[in-house]
């Protein structure tokens, strides 16, 4: 299978697969406005088989069948807290573990659409538990899922007691739906600034360096973070103390942050079924951040990197500009 990149374009060296470049950010932040690109952007993320649409259905399923009522959550109890923890452990294991098994254990897609030509590290002195996958699984399942669940407990407990504003479908159907569309944008804004802060020297050494043990990433890498970083990473959910929402929006918000951390670090651009691309997964934009370190701190929902001069669009020209900046600093 050939890369989507035009054959006449020079390919960024050192990669097994480079997607179509230059990488484009959300058309909602480009000028002049392009309604057709905007429609295509929304359609690709919400009206096809895509992360956002899948996570919306998942949040609804959890809300209807696997979520205690606010009447229950108003009183702290290990019964419902334990149920949330088990649910979140199961979700993360299914998503990250399933992707790891498919792409790296069974290797059902081989190297097709795999960004980095290297295998994940079996051993490495930088990993607390010796191997990359074991290390990532520990930090993901213990600290990551633990912090994810703690934030959910806090919000559901507060909402049950009336300390966080609640919203129902009958209050405003339009706003109820709009909150799903706006949540990834808010997460993007929050993620960029938290991520930039984590690259500040002291915070990097204390916390973020653990995540950057992964130069070549896999599904278990996404949520492999220091507990301090987990607290900061998931803190975007505190907006529900200000903006009226419902429990289903909190579920969508938290599952979006946690589970897309796994999918975006898959290391493969897309899931192939019968040689056709069926589900966008890993993002080359963020994969480059793990290798080049000082580019692409945010994601493509908002163009913060472009505004602050840290955007690498995957082209050879962008890479030359990065090398020039490094040489000038040296």
Describe this structure in words.
- The chain has 330 residues and is an all-alpha fold.
- The protein folds into two domains: 238 residues, no CATH class; 37 residues, no CATH class.
- Helices cover 54% and strands 3% of the residues.
- It contains twelve helices and two strands, in the order H-H-H-H-H-H-H-H-H-E-E-H-H-H.
- Helix 2 crosses helix 9.
- The longest helix is centred in the middle third of the chain and has 29 residues.
- The chain is globular, with a radius of gyration of 20 Å.
- The N terminus is likely disordered.
Short account of what is shown:
This protein has helices spanning 35-46, 51-65, 70-73, 78-105, 132-160, 173-198, 201-211, 227-233, 247-264, 284-292, 304-307, 316-329, and strands at residues 270-273, 276-280.
């Amino acid at each position: 299978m050939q890369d989507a990149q035009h054959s006449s374009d020079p390919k960024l060296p050192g990669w097994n697969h480079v997607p179509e470049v230059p990488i484009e950010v959300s058309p909602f932040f480009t000028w002049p406005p392009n309604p057709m690109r905007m429609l295509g952007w929304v359609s690709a993320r919400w009206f096809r088989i895509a992360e956002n649409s899948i996570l919306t259905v998942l949040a609804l399923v959890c809300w209807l069948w696997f979520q205690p009522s606010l009447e229950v959550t108003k009183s702290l109890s290990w019964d419902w807290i334990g149920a949330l923890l088990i649910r979140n452990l199961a979700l993360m294991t299914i998503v990250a573990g399933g992707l790891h098994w498919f792409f790296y254990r069974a290797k059902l897609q081989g190297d097709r659409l795999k960004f980095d030509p290297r295998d994940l590290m079996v051993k490495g002195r930088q990993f607390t538990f010796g191997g990359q996958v074991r290390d990532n699984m520990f930090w993901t399942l213990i600290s990551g899922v633990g912090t994810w669940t703690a934030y959910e407990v806090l919000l559901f407990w507060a909402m049950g007691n009336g300390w966080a504003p609640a919203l129902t479908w009958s209050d405003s159907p339009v706003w109820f739906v709009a909150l799903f569309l706006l949540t990834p944008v808010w997460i993007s804004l929050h993620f960029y600034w938290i991520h930039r802060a984590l690259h500040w020297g002291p915070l990097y050494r204390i916390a973020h360096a653990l995540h950057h043990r992964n130069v070549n990433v896999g599904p278990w890498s996404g949520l492999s973070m220091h507990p301090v970083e987990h607290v900061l990473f998931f803190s975007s959910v505190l907006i529900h103390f200000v903006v009226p929402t419902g429990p289903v929006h909190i579920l969508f918000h938290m599952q979006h942050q946690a589970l897309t951390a796994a999918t975006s670090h898959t290391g493969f651009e897309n899931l192939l079924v019968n040689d056709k691309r069926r589900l966008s997964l890993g993002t080359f934009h963020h994969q480059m951040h793990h290798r080049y370190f000082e580019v692409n701190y945010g994601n493509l929902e908002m163009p913060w990197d472009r505004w602050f001069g840290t955007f690498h669009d995957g082209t050879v020209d962008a890479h030359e500009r990065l090398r020039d900046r490094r040489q000038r600093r040296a």
